[in-house]
Amino acid sequence: MYGFIKKILFGFAPETIHHGVMRGLKIVNALPFGKNLLDAFCQPKNAGLERTLWGLRFPNPVGLAAGFDKDAKYLDELAHLGFGFVEIGTVTPLPQPGNDQPRLFRLPADQALINRMGFNNEGARAAAKRLQKRRTNIIIGGNIGKNKVTPNEEAISDYEKCFHALFDGVDYFVVNVSSPNTPNLRALQEKEPLKQLLHHLQTLNMQKSRQKPILLKIAPDLTNEQLDDIIEIVKETGLAGIVATNTTISRANLQTPQAELEQIGAGGLSGLPVKERATEVIRYIHRKSGGTIPIIAVGGIFTAADAQEKLDAGASLVQVYTGFIYEGPAIVKKICQGLSQHQ
């Protein structure tokens, strides 16, 4: 059924239909029996998929990656689609419009997306207010970044502001230094600036009466030597884990015509083309760290087999984004059904 609906949805500009569909979901959720209807179609019914990590109990291991609900507007609605957790953001201290539109593109031949959104969001204060008003108790991650106008030399201040603003409303944090759509952001993945940033956030964390897990989201384009540095830094700073991986700047082995790719231009590629590399990164980190670093896997997860591949490589949890767009609102239910058969 979703295949037919998808043809209609894909007839509209990606960003336009995203907001339209989510507004529609809000309406359905507000109708009498709307929540029950969503639960019946989308909620996993499989027992034994719970995961406990960082003292948090995840009802199932399938979450929604950052970028979909940037401003925490749809948490109550997304909870009824079966997600075990939702990651909001990327949130920056100040509101910013992001890059010029169009900035989100579908590559159906590759089951992929290219985005150059540029951390468009309403700012940390607005997200914090919505988090206070949410009704669902679904686990929430807060993905934080810096404003575009903030130079890298002052980036720590931006991450600190987001950390404080969101602390009471989220269950864990993800430090995003790996988006390709904010100029020079990925330079913060280099060893010394990254170590300084993470040490600072962990110091702030330890000053709280109770600490929140802080994870690092990394790019799939890192070399093994850079991954070795990441592993060392995560251990040294006592970070809770890694989210692997963000979007890639690579355009290798795509089915989409080169002329179309050139017309689209810059941006991060997500979806099926990232699947293999994301799994490689997860397997490498898991092996080199001796399995001591918890990993949230993201990248090319469309089916239960895709999710199982990530879990077998060493991930503890998985996230979907592009797969959600292509597979539809029943994706969590389908993945959980498949995972339950491997237990």
**What sort of overall outline do the alpha carbons produce when their principal axes are compared?**
globular
Supply the CATH superfamily name: Aldolase class I
- Contiguous low-pLDDT stretches (5 residues minimum) are none
Hey, roughly how much beta strand do the residues contain? 15-25%
What is this entry, summarized?
By secondary structure, the protein is an alpha/beta fold. It has 13 helices and 13 strands.
Secondary structure elements and their pairing?
Layout: H1 2-9, H2 14-30, H3 34-42, E1 51-53, E2 56-58, E3 62-64, H4 75-79, E4 85-91, E5 104-107, E6 112-115, H5 124-133, E7 139-144, H6 155-166, E8 172-176, H7 191-206, E9 214-218, H8 224-237, E10 241-244, H9 258-264, E11 268-271, H10 275-288, E12 295-298, H11 304-313, E13 317-320, H12 322-327, H13 331-340
Parallel strand pairs: 3-4, 3-13, 4-7, 7-8, 8-9, 9-10, 10-12, 12-13
Antiparallel strand pairs: 1-2, 5-6, 6-11
Helix pairs in contact: 5-6, 6-7, 7-8, 8-10, 10-11, 11-13
Catalytic activity: (S)-dihydroorotate + a quinone = orotate + a quinol
GO molecular function: dihydroorotate dehydrogenase (quinone) activity
Organism: Chitinophaga lutea
